[in-house]
Each structure stands twice: as C-alpha cells, then as structure tokens.
Amino acid sequence: MRIWIVPILSLVSSSILSQNLQLHYDFRYTVDPVHNASNFPTLYFEYFKSQDSGRAFIKPGSFLFKMQADLYGTNNNIGKFFMQVSQTLRLWKPKVFLALQYSGGMGIAEPRQYSYYISNAFGIGASYPFTWKGAWFNAMLLYNYNSFAKPSHDVLYSFYWGKGFRHYKFEFAGDAEIYTLNKNQGDDYTKNLHGKWFCFFAEPQFWYNLSKGLALGSKINLFYHVLSFSDLFQVCPTAAVKWKL
Q1: Cα–Cα distance measured from residue 89 to residue 45, given in angstroms and rounded to the nearest whole number
Q2: 225 Cβ contact list (under 8 Å, min separation 6)
Q3: CATH numeric code, 18-244
Q4: How is 85-148 classified by DSSP, letter by letter?
Q5: The whole model's pTM is what?
Q6: What does the pLDDT look like over 120-135, one tens digit per residue?
Q7: Which end of the chain is more exposed for a tag (fewer CB within 10 A), N or C?
Q8: What element of type H or E holds 29?
Q9: Domain positions in the chain
C-alpha cells in the first residue's frame, strides 16, 4: 500500500491569497529504474489563503486546499489522486495556531484488482509560523488518526520554509515531514507485522519567475517508508512549470 501524507502549509503574513497550477514531469524511472516503472507527469492545484486579523474572537489563520493527480496510468491517464483541506485558527493572543487537517485519495495499480485507497487521515495539533532574516518558516506538530482497517494513532512533525532572492526572481521553498504509521494496518499484507514505521518525506523546490504569473523550476521529492515500506531512501527529481492564477 502506498501512503501519501502532505500536512498543513501556514505562511506568516497578515493577508495572503494565492492559487497556482503546477505541471511536473517526474524522472524517478530515469534515476532509479529498478524500483520505478516509468517517468510520468503530475498535475497540482493549490489554493492558499492567510487571514489573521487579530481582532475577532476566532482568528482564522491559513486555509489550504490542494489536489494532486499523478498521470502514470495507461496513455497517461490518472493513476493516483490525492486531496487535502486544512485550516489553522486561534482564540488567544500568542500566534501559536490550532491546526486542523483532512487528507485522502485513491490509486490504480496494474493489474487493476490491486487498486488501493490513500486512507483518510484526520489531524489536530499546533502550528507556529515565524520569519527570520527575510525568510518564512512554519513548525507544526500534529496528532494524526489514520483510518486503516486497523486504525493508526500517530504523530506528525513538519517544517516548512521559503525565501525569495533578487526581488523574488528566484525562490527556494519546501517542507520536510517526519511521522509514524502502524506496521499492522489490518490488511492481509501487514496483518503479521508489529510496531511502528518511521517515515520521512521532503520536497525542496526551486523556482525561476519568468513573469508575475509564470515560473520554471524543479522539485526534489525525497521518500523513506512512503512509496514503499522497504528500507530504501528514494530521490525523485522533477522538471516543472507553475502558473500563478
């Protein structure tokens, strides 16, 4: 079973609204043909809003809606779909936010009787955004409920960063996550396993802004116990174009 977890993104600004569409070409087969069947395109859509007025009783922080479609099926049909909805808020003065998150999806494998769910995950915890030397950061700690056949109660820590250079002509951003999952998830494949998986995921991104709306760049996807539960550290680079809507 493949597991995909993407946590909350929380920027540090009094008012930010952005949405973008990204098209990546993933070179994982070129880099590691032994463990990957093919290269493929991936389509992302992200809508992000930060609205922290500091005046209302319930002070909304950041809202994120994200969809991802991996086009690795026959004739580049969608082979995996993932979505995430997340919100941060606070009822107090210190800018430590309550973080709420849902994610889930599905995938198609070959032969098709081995298709799978990306099980629903529900998270709650704390998010702390901050700036330092012109860059923004966010640290977040979540309790995650993963609704496998045998539910998994887990901890997720994530760290986000982003910085622009030369008046944001160049951008360096990304995130890294460390989390746990039950080895026994209640299915035939894992029913005899015990304990927890230790998992790591990161996606540093580099962008060159050709104009206000168009950027070229790359994402380096790093996986350990994410694409598979083999003790294998995987590196999957992409070439990408981003359109800011």
Answers
A1: 23
A2: 181, 197, 198, 199, 200, 231
A3: 2.40.160.40
A4: EEEEEESSSSS-EEEEEEEEEEE--SSGGG-EEEEEEEEEEEEEEEEETTEEEEEEEEEEEE-S
A5: 0.87
A6: 999 999 999 999 999 9
A7: C
A8: helix 28-31
A9: 18-244
